[in-house]
Write a structure and sequence with these properties.
The chain has 149 residues and is an alpha+beta fold. Helices cover 32% and strands 21% of the residues. A hairpin with a 5-residue loop joins strand 2 and strand 3 (89-95). The longest helix has 23 residues, at 19-41.
Length: 149
């Protein structure tokens, strides 16, 4: 699925502020909002991961990158699934609380789930400040990681 980037008016991509800068601006705004919400709301046991995930979908994936909202599924085992034009999951994004240092076990569990959808081509693991992208192939259920970035 080819998706044209749609950038909010206050973050329009121009020669001075290309799409990459709009992405960074959105991420900085999301992370700052997570910190502020944590300070104001700060209820014990209420983490910031769900807020981060929601703002990532609305403020980055939809608003900046232009992914159609009706082709985004937010879940539990797969935090965010991006679907192609035919509705097949092609990208998954695993979110963690901003700045959380993930354990080896968390990363292993994430990778073990990836063969659950044979149509996935990209998997992303992020805590907001650190991003890891896996290019994957799993049409028969046997996961092959083609690259880590």
């Amino acid at each position: 699925m080819e998706v044209s980037p749609v950038v909010p008016k206050d973050e329009q991509a121009t020669e001075e502020a290309p799409l990459g800068q709009a992405i960074l601006n959105a991420l900085q705004t999301i992370l700052r909002r997570c910190e502020e919400a944590g300070e104001r709301v700060g209820f014990p046991g209420e983490g910031r991961e769900r807020s981060f995930r929601a703002w990532l979908v609305s403020d980055l994936l939809c608003a900046v990158l232009g992914w159609p909202a009706e082709k985004i599924v937010v879940g539990e085992r797969f935090d965010v699934l991006l679907q192609d034009a035919d509705g097949f999951p092609v990208v998954t994004i695993e979110t963690k609380t901003p700045y959380h240092q993930s354990s080896k076990s968390e990363r292993e569990q994430f990778e073990e789930r990836l063969s659950g959808y044979g149509t996935l081509r990209t998997a992303v693991f992020t805590n907001g400040s650190e991003w890891e992208r896996l290019d994957i192939w799993s049409p028969t259920g046997d996961l092959e990681i083609l690259g880590r970035f």
